[in-house]
Design goal:
This protein is an all-alpha fold. The chain has 4 helices and no strands. The chain has a domain of 28 residues.
Length: 81
């Protein structure tokens, strides 16, 4: 499932970047494509930074509260008998 999702995400991302790069360009000349490719590069960088920020924001907090004596006594009553 993760591999399929990665493949679909990559295809959609590439399609978006190609659309951004070719927006407003009517000729397939080398120098005419440079501004669109630059914009696509900036778009890719911005989306990468946005994804990293979201990933860092949604990171789980793995700190747990310390166990107390009352927690260990009620957690295993069969072992204490």
């Amino acid at each position: 499932m993760a591999s399929t999702t990665q493949q679909i995400g990559s295809a959609v991302g590439l399609a978006v970047l190609v659309a951004v790069a070719s927006h407003g360009t009517h000729v397939a000349d080398g120098p005419a494509l440079v501004p669109g490719l630059r914009t696509a590069g900036y778009t890719a960088a911005a989306l990468t930074l946005l994804g990293a920020a979201v990933a860092l924001t949604l990171r789980r907090n793995n700190t747990s509260r310390p166990a107390t004596d009352s927690d260990t006594e009620t957690a295993s009553p069969a072992l204490s008998a």
